[in-house]
Amino acid sequence: MATNSCLSIPATGKIPFRDRSFVRSAATYESLTTSGDAKRRLLRLIADENRGLKTQSNNQKLNEIIGAIDSLAAVNRDAVTTDESLTATWRMLWTTEKEQLFILKNAAIFGTEAGDVLQVIDVKNKTLNNVITFPPDGVFFVRSEIEVASSQRVNFKFTSAVLRGKGWEFPLPPFGQGWFESVYIDDEIRVVKDIRQDYLIVERAPYSWKE
């Protein structure tokens, strides 16, 4: 049988330079595969959770989702997630944030229903808008200033809030500050933990939200 010389290991037991690059490539492929598997598992788990509303009453499912998030974070612990790839309009898929879930659940009391829930981030201009839409014309959004703190952490400080309808606008005082960590990001989704130990999973929206 013919021998492939580029994969043979010398008697010294040392791997030649060209073989070390092959090993690195294999390790990279394994990491990507693991990351892809973890991402697919996470998306399967949240698929029928109504943006987190169903998860509130299902601790077993919540623990499974958090476990999947932790697995994805571990695979990507060395990744940089605070560069320009963070700049986007992100649409919420799932969260544990009680305030957002309360609005989603109870919007009908006010004669409306919640539409897309968004995070609009601009790393270069150091801005973040948290947005809840109430189609066709309503929106509640909170403006923030942001500062990149590390490879995965961003600090934020709320600066103002606005409740807006068709032809009217009601300003609200700013409140709060903190940080969030994007533990995973790619060209489709982003996975976030924050200072309050809440979790957020968002996708890149097919549109850009503007005030």
What's this, in brief?
The protein is an alpha+beta fold and 211 residues long. It has helices at residues 17-46, 59-75, 98-106; strands at residues 88-95, 117-122, 127-134, 138-148, 153-165, 168-172, 177-185, 189-194, 199-204.
Write the layout of secondary structure elements.
Elements lengths: L16 H30 L12 H17 L12 E8 L2 H9 L10 E6 L4 E8 L3 E11 L4 E13 L2 E5 L4 E9 L3 E6 L4 E6 L7
Antiparallel strand pairs: 1-2, 1-9, 2-3, 3-4, 4-5, 5-6, 5-7, 7-8, 8-9
Helix pairs in contact: 1-2
Supply database-style keywords:
27% helix, single chain, 9 strands, globular, disordered N terminus, alpha+beta, 3 helices
**Whole-angstrom Rg:** 22 Å
Terminus-to-terminus distance:
69 Å
Number of beta strands:
9
- Provide the low-confidence segments as ranges: 1-33
Give me the strand/helix succession. Answer: HHEHEEEEEEEE
Global mean pLDDT: 86
Range of helix content: 25-40%
Characterise this structure:
The chain is an alpha+beta fold. Helix content is 27%, strand content 34%. The protein has helices at 17-46, 59-75, 98-106, and strands spanning 88-95, 117-122, 127-134, 138-148, 153-165, 168-172, 177-185, 189-194, 199-204. Strands 1-2-3-4-5-7-8-9 form an eight-stranded antiparallel β-barrel. The longest helix is centred in the first third of the chain and has 30 residues, at 17-46. The protein is globular.
